[in-house]
Amino acid sequence: MTDLKKITRALISVSDKQGILELAQVLVRHNIEIISTGGTAKLLRAYGVNVRDVSDFTGFPEMLDGRVKTLHPKIHGGILHIRDNAEHRRHANNHNIAPIDLVIVNLYPFRETIAKPSVTLDDAIENIDIGGPAMLRSAAKNHNDVAVVVEPTDYPRLTKLLNANDGALPQTVRYELAVKAFRHTAAYDRDISRYLGQQLPTDATTNELPDEWTLELNKATGLRYGENPHQKAALYKIAGSNERGVANAEQLQGKELSYNNLLDGDAAWNLALEIYQAQRRDAQASGAIETSGLPHTCAIIKHTNPCGIGIGTTALDAFTKAKATDPVSAFGGIIACTKTIDESAAHAMSELFAEVIIAPDFTAEAKTIFSVKKNLRLLQMGEIATSRDPYFELRRISGGMLVQENDHELLDEESFKIVSERKPTVAELRALRFAWAICKHVKSNAIVYAKEDQLVGVGAGQMSRVDSVKLGATKAQLPLTGSVLASDAFFPFRDGLDEAARHGITAVIQPGGSVRDADAIQAANEHNLAMVFTAMRHFKH
Known about the structure:
single chain; alpha/beta; Rossmann fold; Cytidine Deaminase, domain 2; 3 domains; six-stranded mixed β-sheet; 23 strands; elongated
């Protein structure tokens, strides 16, 4: 068994015509016969490449609107018969089956089809390839004798190898290409099964999460290291996902993103997006259609927790308020803005050492200002999606995976239950909603002090809620008097409210639901605090 196998005949059937003409011309130069189908054959002939139709090769016409063309013994026999097996050769000779040594196939664009907003089930079904995966699997199975190529990105390498080996390919390459083909068909079938499964009717009384979960991750780039220098890491993208997010952002400048940059960047962008979506919903409720009039929001994140958030009439105004929350912690943080960053905001941001700055867009002047800081990463997100994507959150644990719906719920005033004797003012309600939105993005136990346009203090990740209340007050650089407080879960005792009242807050938002709710309500009334219950918890672990 020799390592190099000469290619005498190739079958080409591709949906993606990129680079196929140039490759076919290489095959011709090496006296390799080409058999092909439909549009591929037509394209190659148009440029003078001699092609034999599959129907001529099999002696059987294409039929059923092209559904049946390569599903034939002469195709699969030509691919699958083992060249060194005498019995296989005898069968091939008796049935006039010629060997096919190279299969170049890419599949109907099912993933691209179902990504179209107007796609119908019939459209999707017609873009399920049958003959293509069958040929890929046959060639991959018999990789000792047959080479299989599924991705146009492999054409240059194939060309180089054919030229270097006088039209032959080494076994190691055939094996590698076979593995790639099997991975490709497996991912293709996952896309189909996932899409068709989503069309099944669901029963609201049962668990709607699927019994089986398939996920294809494609490596986008290697990272210098993980959370720490001794850990290897890489960024993978979810195949077939159109979700807009940090993983798909365009990096305009700066050194490569690190593992921690991506985690913090995602946290910053999600928090800024949370405030934006709340603003957009309010605008729509008031009858506004355009979102260009929405205020600017700026979030600053450090170690996935917010250390500054501001809302302003300009990007500069929003950033100034965000930075004022905790200027010390903001050093080395991640900045995310919901609208274009202009020159004035860029000047102010450039005075603060930041790892990453994220925004839908940057003006030309802002880019020029930031360009001086060579290591600063700028991520351009593009237009913000009008709705939150219904993707699930997956988290690895030893021996398994936890899957849950993303926490996109955010209640408004209509869902609030006022439990205190004093009702919150209109300004307090705005501040409470703002604080409640921020609270979702703070590690539990989470306490947030805020005004209606600015984060004031954060108590994150403490083992007791009263300690989070104390920490948030201790960390606050802005006056606490007149601010409101949000808690991601109920107060198990009244001590947290007593402590918060000591710092001059005026209103509280919390889920409620404790067996000691009456004690918490009594504390609020004693301190003349307005307090609302949401009946919804926002733990973030």
